[in-house]
């Protein structure tokens, strides 16, 4: 409200009250409603002002310094990002060569791989103002609020860059799929207005040459983003921040081990080999949990067994105090032995331990020896994986005549692997497009593959029934059966059979 408007209201309200009193009107209800309405409007204005102003103002402070050297396991992604960021640093060169400046960089990949860390390192690398926000912060039920927050975010970034005498600012939006999802062309939604405002800011319609604003965003659901965001001139670079390989995992573990006292015999390379498909966040958790185990044991340093226990905890969960009946323990033991025997027969030397210790939701588990990182699989290798997954349920059928609910996760793994075979053209259906094949055909082929592999697993395990009987008592009594002990029993069974 303008200054003159306030003066008019101050003068008019007392005159109106005096007039109503003069004509005999009861003004108490009117005053009551006026106070309620005024309070509501004041709180709404204060709330919106805090959300679109104070939040971004507090975010305008420079983040704690983080360099690319402090981010492990992403050498390729870091090289790509640094090359893209050079457009901000070498601005005179790109002007001389007539190169169009980058507008945006999209970081994609699984959760926990370091996308936010790379955005912070980018701000340090370019000596830019760094402002961060989450996609959910722009979602509101009130029309226009999300778009207003986008405008305020970019405005605050430019203002802070000018204030700190910097030539560039980086605006980072995490989980951008929340506001950048595909528009269906239907009812006009608040999300659409927010996305339209973001597209406008990226087009540079309301921006100046300096300070330059680069937008970075992160998502693990790139396929959900609107095509208008992904086109050249908006997000010009799409950088995949993938799960680290073994070399990257060693680097990450060493980074998180810097402030932790490791025992001389602690071998991080072996831990890196065991943690195939672990993200950077999971590897950080492994080192943290290992330190917690060392503290529980009142140990002066972190030993190899603490690291191994931490891998199990991150992968399967903490040990639980569930007390099961004798019959249930025997069923779980036979189930896990089914997995172990199937694994050892199709991949000799792969079993490291068979355990009956409950962890998380699992009542028992088989720990496998670390394998080489592998990204391509043949049809035979996938079938072996399916047979290992089915081994537990087949073992229950052999000794109890039926299955239990403990096979649910095993079946999910088997179905996912069958789906991979179908999508890779490794089934009798050949190379297919799922949209061009009926659901009945897919279900028929799925059932055929699983039935065939179930029969093969049953035939294989029946030949080693003695191993079940010899291992069962040891496993129930000791709760743990080592890989070497298990292989000796398996070898004795083979000798007797021959």
Which CATH class of the largest domain applies here? Alpha Beta
Distance between the first and last residues' Cα: 96 Å
Total of helices = 18
Strand content: 5-15%
Total domain modules: 4
**Helical content (DSSP H or I, runs of 4+):** 55-70%
Biggest sheet details: 5 strands, parallel
CATH T-level fold name of the largest domain = Rossmann fold
SS-derived structural category:
alpha/beta
Shape annotation:
elongated
Q: CATH homologous superfamily of the largest domain?
A: P-loop containing nucleotide triphosphate hydrolases
Strand line-up across the major sheet? 2-3-4-1-5
H/E element sequence: HHHHEHEHEHEHEHHHHHEEHHHHEH
Overall mean pLDDT: 82
> Which value, in Å, is the CA radius of gyration?
31 Å
Task: Tell me which CATH architecture of the largest domain applies here.
Answer: 3-Layer(aba) Sandwich
List unreliable stretches of 5+ residues: 48-63
Give the assembly state of these chains. single chain
Task: Please give a structural write-up.
The chain is α/β, with parallel strands linked by helices and 498 residues long. The protein has 4 domains: 3-59; 68-240, Rossmann fold (3-Layer(aba) Sandwich), CATH 3.40.50.300; 246-316, Helicase, Ruva Protein, domain 3, CATH 1.10.8.60; 326-497, Peptidase M41 (Methane Monooxygenase Hydroxylase, Chain G, domain 1, Up-down Bundle), CATH 1.20.58. It is built from 18 helices and 8 strands. The protein has a 5-stranded parallel beta sheet with strand order 2-3-4-1-5, with helices on both faces. A 3-stranded antiparallel beta sheet has the order 7-6-8. It is elongated, with a radius of gyration of 31 Å. It starts with a helix and ends with a helix. The model is unreliable at 48-63 (pLDDT under 50).
